[in-house]
Specification:
about 210 residues; alpha/beta; Rossmann fold; 2 domains; 5-stranded parallel sheet; globular
Length: about 210
């Protein structure tokens, strides 16, 4: 179990040491939870930090259960099997997508002024979250990077179930994970402190990272 996201990031950086000081590599965090993890990786490896905006689509009435994810540029990853099994209607799906698209736009506006601007020009992307549960959010992030023809996509998370590893490895170039667990009630179960982050804290970490950019 990790003390918090910062400790998880410090430990995860050890699995990525070969990318230290690379001029071709950027660390991309999935906000909000992935930002403290990615911040520590970027700090230890002397790499620039940016964010990749992706939003999970929660099942109606069960927001923590993902039925898919969306990202900028109209990218959608949907778990059609789950949607069908749970009897989710097209109207409910469209409503969830519309709500998360509004949140994407809101976060783009908030984070715009505390981000660096040249990140996507780098060839290698280390994509970081605080954990993977269903995998839909990470798969949407990978689709964004594939559309931008990133040379190498490295997915790095502190914890994930084995099925997520298989799904990610099928579409990414590399997968780095500290804990693979069949027992997986929730990502937060692997942290003593899994406090929710606010936008102010995300911007604070992005600003600090931008100030020390290599």
């Amino acid at each position: 179990m990790f003390r918090d996201r910062s400790e998880a990031g410090q430990l995860l950086a050890g699995k990525l040491a070969r990318y230290a000081d690379s001029k071709e590599t950027v660390v991309l965090a999935l906000p909000r939870g992935g930002v403290p993890v990615a911040f520590e990786i970027a700090r230890k490896l002397h790499l620039p930090l940016d964010i990749l905006l992706v939003r999970k689509l929660g099942v109606p009435g069960q927001a923590e259960l993902a039925m898919g994810a969306i990202a900028a540029g109209g990218i959608r990853v949907l778990d059609r099997v789950m949607i069908r099994q749970l009897g989710i209607t097209e109207e409910e799906l469209a409503s969830a997508i519309s709500e998360e698209e509004r949140e994407l736009r809101r976060r783009e506006e908030i984070y715009r002024n505390c981000r660096s601007s040249e990140m996507m020009s780098r060839q290698n992307a280390i994509v970081v979250d605080d954990g993977i549960a269903t995998g839909s959010t990470m798969l949407a992030a990978i689709q964004i990077l594939q559309s931008q023809q990133q040379a190498k996509i490295i997915v790095a998370v502190p914890v994930a179930p084995p099925h997520a590893q298989r799904e990610v490895e099928a579409v990414a170039h590399e997968f780095a994970c500290l804990i693979l667990s069949e027992y997986f009630p929730a990502v937060g179960s692997f942290y003593r402190d899994f406090s929710q982050l606010d936008d102010e804290e995300v911007c604070r970490l992005l600003t600090i990272a931008a100030m020390r950019e290599p």
